[in-house]
Design brief:
The structure is a single chain. It contains 19 helices and 20 strands. With 472 residues, the chain is of the alpha/beta class. The protein folds into 3 domains: 210 residues, P-loop containing nucleotide triphosphate hydrolases (Rossmann fold, 3-Layer(aba) Sandwich), CATH 3.40.50; 156 residues, Rossmann fold, CATH 3.40.50; 76 residues, 2-Layer Sandwich (Alpha-Beta Plaits), CATH 3.30.70.330. The strands form 4 sheets. Strands 5-6-4-7-8-3-9 form a 7-stranded parallel β-sheet, with helices on both faces. A 7-stranded parallel β-sheet has the order 12-13-11-14-15-10-16, sandwiched between helices. Strand 12, helix 13 and strand 13 form a beta-alpha-beta unit.
Length: 472
C-alpha cells in the first residue's frame, strides 16, 4: 500500500508539511501518490479507493492548499454518513496546520440553529452529508454558487443509501465549480453517468480491483450453527490483547442488542451501535471507542459506516451480510494503512450460499477454520458451547446417528423405534428411517430430540448392553 515516494518530495506549502511531519507521515500511499499531483494541477479526478487507503489526504491536501482563510465558502466535501463526515473534517483539521482555515461539518441529527449560526459566521470548507447540505442551502445558510472545489467521497455508498438525486441537486447549483474530485470503491453505472455529466474530462486513478477492494488481512470462516455463534465469538474476543479493538457486525438492530446483552452477561466490555441511538449517544460511543475506552463495538452496517479507527485488529461477521458489497466495507474496518488485521465470519448452513457468492464475486481466499483455541492462561470458555444438531439435519430436520451394533443385537426397525419412543418419551413421528450397515445400525431422529436420544443411549441398555453411538 505504501510507496517509496516521500511527502517532502511534493514541494507542499510549509504549513502543510509541518502538519504532515507532526502526524508522523513520511511516505505516500498509492492513491496519494497517483492523485495528489493531478488534483494540485487542477484536473478533475476519479479515484478508486477503499476505506483505509489514505484517500482523505489524497483529496484533502490539494483542497487545503487551494483554499484561503477568508471566511467565504470555497470547497465542499460530501460524505455518506455523519461519522465519516466527522472523521474527514478531523483529519483535514490536523492536516491544515496553522493555515487558519475554518472547516465545518454539516450533517443531520444535530442542532440546526447552532449549525446555521456557524455557517452564517463564515466558513472556508464544508464537510457534510447530502441531505443536510441540501437543507441548509434551501434555508439560505449555504451559498452553493460559491463552491470552487467539490469532492464526493464513497460515491458507491451514497448510491446505496439513495443520495444520488440530492447529490445531483447540489452539483447543479455549484455554478462556480472549477474542479471536481470523486472517490469510490466500486463504480456502478449510475456513478459513471453522473461523472460524465458533471466532470470535465476526468483523470482516472485506478489500481488492480482485487488488491484495492480487499484489504491485506487474514480471512477466516467458521462453519457453525446459530446456537453456538456466541460461543465462537467469545473465543475470538478472549484472544484480544490489551491494545486490540474489535467490531462485530450483525444484520439487524435486534441482533445487535441481543449480542450486547449476552456478551455483557459474560463480562465482555462491549457497546452497541445502531440506528435507534440518537446522535449524541452515537458520538459518545464512537469517541470512547476511538480513545480505546471501549474494546468492542457490536454494530449494524449503516451505523458503522465511516468508523475508521486504526486500533481495530479484529472484525467479526456474526451475521453474513445480505449485501455483497457490505462484506468488503465491513472487513475494511481492520488492516488500516498496512496494519495487520483479521476478519472472521461465522457461517451457518443457511449462510453458506451467500458466503459462497461473496467469495466468488471478489475471488477471495478465505481459510475454513475451527473456532480458535483458548489462549494460554484461559482454561474455560467465556460462553458455554451448547449441543446443536441443526447444522447436520436434513431439510425435514432429521439427523442420522450410527449405533455400533448389528440387527441381531438390536432387533427389528419397529423394536428400535419403540425403544426410542419409550426412553425419550417422544411421538413416533420424531423417529425416522432405521437401516442396517454391516456391523452398525443407522437411525434418523428429529434434531429437537437428538440430545435426549444420545443421553438415553449412554444410560439405558438397548438389547442386552449399553451401546456406542455417534452423530453422522
Amino acid at each position: 500500500m505504501f510507496t517509496k515516494t516521500r511527502f517532502d518530495s511534493l514541494d507542499l506549502p510549509e504549513h502543510l508539511m509541518d502538519a504532515i511531519t507532526a502526524m508522523g507521515w513520511e511516505c505516500l500511499t498509492e492513491v496519494q501518490r497517483d492523485t495528489i499531483p493531478l488534483a494540485r494541477s487542477g484536473r478533475d479526478v476519479i479515484g478508486q479507493a477503499r476505506t483505509g487507503s489514505g484517500k482523505t489526504a489524497a483529496f484533502g491536501l490539494p483542497i487545503l492548499e487551494s483554499c484561503e482563510a477568508s471566511g467565504t465558502l470555497q470547497s465542499l466535501l460530501l460524505a455518506p454518513t455523519r461519522e465519516l463526515a466527522q472523521q474527514v473534517a478531523e483529519e483535514m483539521t490536523q492536516l491544515q496546520g496553522d493555515s487558519g482555515l475554518k472547516i465545518m461539518t454539516v450533517y443531520g441529527g444535530t442542532d440546526l440553529e447552532k449549525q446555521a449560526r456557524g455557517l452564517d459566521d463564515g466558513v472556508d470548507i464544508i464537510v457534510g452529508t447530502p441531505g443536510r447540505v441540501m437543507d441548509m442551502s434551501q434555508r439560505g445558510h449555504i451559498d452553493l454558487s460559491m463552491v470552487q472545489m467539490f469532492c464526493l467521497d464513497e460515491a458507491d455508498r451514497m448510491l446505496d443509501m439513495g443520495f444520488l438525486p440530492d447529490i445531483i441537486w447540489i452539483l447543479e447549483r455549484t455554478t462556480s465549480r472549477k474542479q471536481t474530485l470523486l472517490f469510490s470503491a466500486t463504480f456502478p453505472q449510475e456513478i459513471l453517468d453522473a461523472a460524465n455529466e458533471f466532470m470535465n474530462t476526468p483523470e482516472f486513478v485506478m489500481t488492480n480491483q482485487e488488491e484495492l477492494d480487499v484489504p491485506p488481512i487474514d480471512l477466516f470462516n467458521i462453519s457453525i450453527g446459530r446456537t453456538n455463534k456466541l460461543w465462537a465469538l467469545g473465543r475470538l474476543l478472549v484472544r484480544m490483547g490489551d491494545d486490540d479493538q474489535s467490531i462485530v457486525f450483525c444484520n439487524t438492530k435486534r441482533m445487535v442488542d441481543l449480542a450486547v446483552q449476552r456478551l455483557k452477561k459474560h463480562r465482555f466490555d462491549v457497546a452497541s451501535l445502531h440506528g435507534d441511538l440518537n446522535q449524541n449517544q452515537r458520538e459518545r460511543i464512537i469517541d470512547s471507542f476511538r480513545k480505546g475506552e471501549i474494546k468492542t463495538v457490536i454494530a449494524t452496517d449503516v451505523a458503522a459506516r465511516g468508523i475508521d479507527i486504526d486500533g481495530i485488529t479484529l472484525v467479526v461477521n456474526y451475521d453474513v451480510p445480505s449485501d455483497i458489497d457490505s462484506f468488503i466495507h465491513r472487513i475494511g474496518r481492520t488492516g488500516r494503512i498496512g496494519r495487520h488485521g483479521e476478519a472472521w465470519s461465522l457461517v451457518s448452513k443457511d449462510d453458506a450460499p451467500q458466503m459462497n457468492k461473496i467469495i466468488a464475486t471478489y475471488n477471495l481466499h478465505i481459510l475454513d477454520s475451527e473456532a480458535p483455541d483458548l489462549p494460554e492462561g484461559v482454561d474455560r470458555d467465556p460462553v458455554k458451547k451448547q449441543d446443536d444438531y441443526g447444522e447436520t439435519a436434513d431439510v425435514y430436520g432429521f439427523v442420522s446417528i450410527r449405533i455400533h451394533s448389528t440387527r441381531e443385537e438390536l432387533g427389528s426397525p419397529r423394536t428400535i423405534a419403540t425403544w426410542f419412543e419409550q426412553h425419550i418419551r417422544c411421538d413416533s413421528l420424531a423417529i425416522g428411517d432405521v437401516s442396517y450397515d454391516g456391523d452398525s445400525t443407522v437411525v434418523s431422529i428429529h434434531s429437537s430430540k437428538l440430545g435426549l436420544a444420545m443421553k438415553a443411549l449412554n444410560v439405558h441398555p438397548m438389547g442386552d448392553a449399553i451401546v456406542q453411538a455417534s452423530v453422522l
